[in-house]
């Protein structure tokens, strides 16, 4: 129908004076035509339904955006880390461009809203309200853009989805208006132009937001610091123990793109593309730095906090599983959600297949054929289901695997920290092999349950979906399959319970074998010397062959029975369901019914097949979690045995102070040390002498907090370095044992080597200080190990030195050299507080104070001359 200019000024239209005075104004034809162009017609389904779609992005920015706004407001401002001025200018240009574009879209949207109100009033309130809400949402996005740019390293997720939904809705509106603009004479050109302009501006904002705040890529500046000249003495006012930081040790590596990747890059794994482009065998330097939250110390601290909260509860026993869930459960719960969505999409495919077969059947037997658009829609839905299913499956697998790695790193760090503070009573009942077994076998099983154990939950969910889908196809006959599954569950649970008991016994056998193997390796020299190889081989074989292998065989038979049972169940379920359907139903088994049902039965086979594996993994993880939990809940060293404070240079504040202290090795026994009181100031050397077994080494252990303090006070100020009577060396080079993680200072290193009389020894070694010392220093002699241990303590540059008989393992002339160059009043440690246990009387003449112990008590104290006189 054609409208002329005069018809737009119809005397009874809304613009005429007569219409204004009429109680119910009659809209003009131009009004109806414009409203149809604005809202659509009956061919589009629901009039103005597209306007209600604007509620989705508006609610998204209101809810999710508010959460992001609160999160960003609590973060500090992140300053640009790039030194490239061009990058910084480009970043600023991007930021201001986004703000200008948002303001432009807001102004255009506000102007268009005012136009709608003036032109049409409230004839279509949905259009007006949605337009005003969109304008408010765009203005609300401005502070979110500002804070996201200043305080976030990646693009804001709520803003990305906000603009994405707006682009989709704008495309839907353009789809409605562009055909009308071609068919209707003199349409509303302003609305089509507005939609095109708004879509272009939104696309530009979306593209700029996807770029992200790339200003935060750093240039990896190397931070170095001077340790000063330490040739002749170690400055007592400086703590030169400077362990290498996490960042320094990985400076050559680049920052992980995952830190800056937006939500779309993380969903599609686009952030890993630069690594894939290398196209070569990867080396360590090709890998990126781990994000800070995924580094070992951060993961250990997280599980340590949750475990401490579990232990602080008095009404229940601590649960390691609950601690793991609280520490790392967030991403894992998201993985569960992704897996459930993937399962739903997986079971939607047979339903779509059934609908596609019904569509194809409509073109046969003279039936009324369905429109081809239905077939295209079904095919498109099947494609989208497959695409989304793959997307969610990989997101689930990635998060589950990463959670497993986090649990492994955190638990290993937690077990290691616990092993350092075990009480002496607990240490006597546990060997190193037991702790290693916890770190390797038990932790690996818990990690495996995180990566693959989710199949248990997913399997139950898939079985439920399969039976619901089968019910929609077969009806009540599918209950026969349900009965088969229910009857098999108790039998399988009994087998799983038996498998759990065998698994617990197997772990005990592994502990016994590991403990025996550790003893064999530690005493391999004695075994070889006395030709005890056959005896220990028989002993080891008795555990391995007679106990472990026999139990493994029984467990293998049991697992095969469980797996065979669950593999046979899907066939039995399908057989029973189809048999009952054929007997009681009048409906024939058509291809549109059989093929989707068979697809569902095939999908049912997967969860039923992997369910016993998942149950097995969860059983093993549960046993391992209880073992680790029992270890972590064991008794620790006395936390308040030693009062530790910062180092003080004041002379009247001694670094070591013990007042009337009583110590014992285990609770319930008599005091090993009684009435101990001593004080060591800066630059003083205290010697502790006494017969063998008088308590000299125990006194040093008590000062370190290794013993149970019954009463008294022990206070240490500053860092402490300790050398044991039996030196402990790392299985590394001589140099690495001396540095022990401290930054290398060539001048100080050479000074320490010379003071510890290691120059000649290193010259005799083929590789010098790069010689591997072997396990516990097996490649070195006793005197060399003692001097390397002493050199490590000196290089640490501590404030307090506790030396347990450091001169007993060396020759007399070497002992004199060590005392003069290191320990004595003119040595490297002359400015430090030193406590030395020794029976070398010649060196006691040069100490500042001498203490004599007998039966755990101080019987004499004073200078060498005063003690000798008594």
Task: Give a summary of the structure in a few sentences.
This protein is an alpha/beta fold and 870 residues long. It contains 30 helices and ten strands. The strands form two sheets. Strands 6-7-8-4-9-10 form a six-stranded mixed beta sheet, with helices on both faces. Strands 1-5-2-3 form a four-stranded mixed beta sheet, covered by helices on one side.
If you had to describe this structure to a student in words, what would you say it looks like?
- Residues 656-870 form the ABC transporter domain.
- It comes from Puccinia coronata f. sp. avenae.
- GO terms for molecular function: ABC-type transporter activity; ATP binding; ATP hydrolysis activity.
- The longest helix is centred in the middle third of the chain and has 52 residues, at 533-584.
- The protein contains 30 helices and 10 strands.
- The N and C termini lie far apart (129 Å).
- The protein has 3 domains: 51-211, no CATH class; 296-633, Up-down Bundle (ABC transporter transmembrane region fold), CATH 1.20.1560; 643-869, P-loop containing nucleotide triphosphate hydrolases (Rossmann fold).
- Helix 18 packs antiparallel against helix 22.
- By secondary structure, the protein is of the alpha/beta class.
List keywords for this structure.
about 850 residues; alpha/beta; ABC transporter transmembrane region fold; Rossmann fold; six-stranded mixed sheet; four-stranded mixed sheet; ABC_transporter-like_ATP-bd; ATP-binding; repeat; TMD0_ABC; ABC_transporter_C-like
